[in-house]
Amino acid sequence: MRENSFESMSKIYISIIIATRNREQILWETVNKALESVENTNTEVIIINDGDSPLDIPNSIASKIYCFDNPKKGVSSARNFGVSKSRGEVLFFIDDDMWINHEVISWINHNAVNKTVYFINWEYPPYLKEMLAKSKIGRYLLCTNYDTLWGRLHKNFPKPVSGLYKYDSVGSGSLIMQKEIFNKTGGYNEKIIFQGEDAEMAAKLNKQGIPIYIVFDITLHHNHRDRLEINNFLKRTYDGFGSEFKAVMAGEIVLMSPTTYKGLERMALEFSRMTEKGWIFFLNLLPNYRIMTPISNKLIGALGGLQKYKQWRNMIG
């Protein structure tokens, strides 16, 4: 374990906790944005390194952050460890690619974060949307509304312009709660390594009657820059479903819609599984023209669904 210490402020109110794993370039962009946002506020920035090796902390920020190693134990363990090292009354969990701003820190300071849990609306930054429009995987993400929080929620009505939206789950990429509430839940389930920890946390909050809201008065930027290459996109999808199904099999979480594959659907997916490399090769051969987008989108969508099937087949089927 390694810690960077600095002079403590008179009183810490907000503890920003960033769990990270093997994404240093993206991480330091995020940390710099965070430090700009919290300047002259009673806020601390805590980084928990879940990666394979110690972080190479830039000298320019080493004295402004706390950094701890918690190698290869998973995101749930990293967040819990961050809370154990925090001094703030309010916890603000952000992903290592979530850019925060002055507005969200001001919002926390001026709103009673009391017996309520919030997560903040986000979308991809403008530069990233421009990059997405120039690549096959990028156009798929834009067409499926993967570039916004509201798009990920798959609602069939317009996004709220402002205010609070009552919800029954959480998004830990930008999650705000009192430390007291966090402790009442028992924290994140450390048996859940990568994906599924939000569903488990939400279930505990709902059981205790703690309301959850999405904040639409503020928009953060989610810098998913490393999703522009098909193999990275598929690997993350595959790993995520692996973690989720493992938690389901262990009884740690219960999916609202249990996954199952039968009959012709399973036969088709088995064929796709055996020929997956060929489909990826074909996707890479397709010209990167907008006119080809409907074809590439169908291929990418099918390959993404295949990752879920492969993990289901490994663990459940």
Entry summary:
The protein is of the alpha/beta class.
- Overall helicity: 40-55%
pLDDT < 50 runs, ≥5 residues: 1-9
At the first level of CATH, what is the class of the largest domain?
Alpha Beta
CATH topology of the largest domain: Spore Coat Polysaccharide Biosynthesis Protein SpsA, Chain A
Query: What amount of the residues lies in strands?
Result: 15-25%
How does the overall form come out from the CA principal axes? globular
In the CATH classification, which architecture of the largest domain applies? Alpha-Beta Complex
CATH superfamily of the largest domain: Spore Coat Polysaccharide Biosynthesis Protein SpsA, Chain A
What characterizes the major β-sheet?
9 strands, mixed
Total number of strands: 9
Give the number of domains: 2
Give the averaged pLDDT, no decimals. 91
Assign the structural class, choosing from mainly alpha, mainly beta, alpha/beta, alpha+beta, or little secondary structure: alpha/beta
